């Protein structure tokens, strides 16, 4: 079964064709990073306009690279939540029109479920149930993936997501957008023990809070500037990255102990961070848990993961009509 996936939740216009939820036939992305870098972050209005300009061409390219014609596609899957509402609406409305015109089923896909499905494309042997840590610019949560479509959230961010904290700290350090990769590079040159940073507490042991940590780093930077003191940016980046990774991995390890799950998957844009990948692999190995981490190109937003999850949603008979709407926020 061939699924055409469409992803426009933030600043990547993406389309892909995936067969049977596991095999990528094509994946195409039109990135907006250069445009948003001028403003130090994603500008929602610009993102929506650029999606509108790119989506037809990206879809045509994905079909051409897959060697499939539209009438050979079995269904159209699209990210409908969560994300930037204007950006989502471009993808949802395009998918609705395409599905209606081609007389194909329309499959709504939750963005976080899509991120989890990225691991199905990289690891054919991965099947539910398993634990999943999803970490991105807008989300940080630990989930028990009971089945391909049934997710139970153990904990989530109560304020800033880890990826958002990375970007804001990177901006304060003078790094370009998106800042995560620059913090990762700087951290490799720094001393992670040089700056003592706070570990925010939460009522639910599996929830995350990164707002206070982000603010502590930004205040440290501003105070140094006001006093005319030199700052070791590489070591501050290393200390910040280590603290975030330690928080994420400690809570995930506690979840492994609580649930007894022997399989753990990492996903989302922050899954590309080398410090997180190394720390999670080491700590899970200490518990004898098997770890699944997607290749770097499947960590960020892409349509292949949406098409993959779309296959399992279709098999569960989760389809939508032409009144499908988009939602900026929607819990799993």
Descriptors for this entry?
single chain, 332 residues, alpha/beta, Nucleotidyltransferase, domain 5, five-stranded mixed beta sheet, 10 strands, globular
What's the quick description here?
With about 325 residues, the protein is of the alpha/beta class. About 45% of the residues lie in helices and about 20% in strands.
Can you characterise this structure?
With 332 residues, this protein is of the alpha/beta class. Helices cover 44% and strands 18% of the residues. It folds into 2 domains: 2-116 and 299-315, Nucleotidyltransferase, domain 5, CATH 3.30.420; 128-296, Nucleotidyltransferase, domain 5. The protein has helices at residues 33-37, 44-66, 85-102, 111-122, 162-172, 180-187, 211-227, 233-259, 274-286, 303-315, and strands at 2-7, 12-19, 23-31, 75-81, 106-110, 130-135, 140-145, 151-156, 263-267, 290-292. The protein has a 5-stranded mixed β-sheet with strand order 3-2-1-4-5, sandwiched between helices. Strands 8-7-6-9-10 form a 5-stranded mixed β-sheet, with helices on both faces. β4 (75-81), α3 (85-102) and β5 form a beta-alpha-beta unit. The chain is globular, with a radius of gyration of 20 Å. The chain starts with a strand and ends in a 17-residue tail after the last helix. The mean pLDDT is 96.
Percent range for helical residues? 40-55%
Main sheet strand line-up: 3-2-1-4-5
User: Quick one: overall form?
Assistant: globular
Q: Structural class, from secondary structure content?
A: alpha/beta
Uncertain runs with pLDDT below 50, 5 residues or more? Answer: none
* CATH top-level class of the largest domain: Alpha Beta
- For this structure, the quaternary state is single chain
Counting DSSP H or I runs of 4 or more residues, the number of helices is: 10
Strand content: 15-25%
Count up the domains: 2
CATH superfamily of the largest domain: ATPase, nucleotide binding domain
Order of helices and strands: EEEHHEHEHEEEHHHHEHEH
- Provide the gyration radius in Å: 20 Å
CATH topology value of the largest domain:
Nucleotidyltransferase, domain 5
The counted number of beta strands is 10
């Amino acid at each position: 079964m061939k699924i055409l996936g469409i992803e426009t939740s933030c600043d990547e216009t993406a389309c892909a064709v995936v067969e049977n939820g596991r095999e990528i036939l094509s994946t195409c992305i039109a990135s907006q990073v250069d445009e948003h870098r001028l403003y130090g972050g994603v500008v929602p209005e610009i993102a929506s306009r650029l999606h509108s300009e790119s989506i037809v061409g990206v879809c045509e390219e994905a079909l051409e690279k897959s060697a499939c014609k539209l009438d050979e596609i079995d269904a159209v899957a699209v990210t409908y939540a969560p994300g930037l509402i204007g950006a989502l609406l471009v993808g949802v409305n395009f998918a609705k029109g395409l599905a209606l015109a081609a007389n194909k089923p329309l499959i709504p896909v939750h963005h976080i479920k899509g991120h989890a499905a990225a691991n199905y494309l990289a690891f054919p042997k991965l099947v539910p149930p398993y634990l999943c840590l999803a970490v991105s610019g807008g989300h940080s949560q630990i989930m028990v993936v009971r089945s391909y479509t049934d997710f139970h959230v153990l904990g989530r961010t109560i304020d800033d997501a880890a990826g958002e904290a990375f970007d804001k700290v990177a901006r304060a350090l003078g790094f370009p957008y998106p800042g995560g990769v620059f913090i990762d590079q700087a951290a490799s040159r720094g001393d992670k023990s040089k700056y003592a940073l706070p570990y925010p507490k939460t009522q639910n042991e599996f929830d995350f809070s990164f707002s206070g940590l982000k603010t502590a780093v930004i205040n440290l930077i501003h105070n140094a500037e006001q006093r005319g003191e030199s700052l070791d940016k590489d070591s501050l980046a290393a200390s910040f990255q280590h603290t975030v990774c330690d928080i994420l991995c400690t809570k995930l390890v506690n979840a492994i102990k609580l649930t007894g799950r022997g399989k753990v998957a990492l996903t989302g844009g922050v899954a590309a961070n080398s410090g997180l990948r190394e720390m999670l692999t080491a700590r899970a190995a200490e518990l004898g848990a098997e770890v699944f981490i997607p290749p770097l190109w499947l960590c960020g937003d892409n349509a292949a993961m949406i098409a993959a999850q779309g296959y399992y949603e279709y098999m569960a008979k989760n389809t939508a009509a032409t009144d499908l709407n988009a939602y900026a926020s929607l819990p799993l």
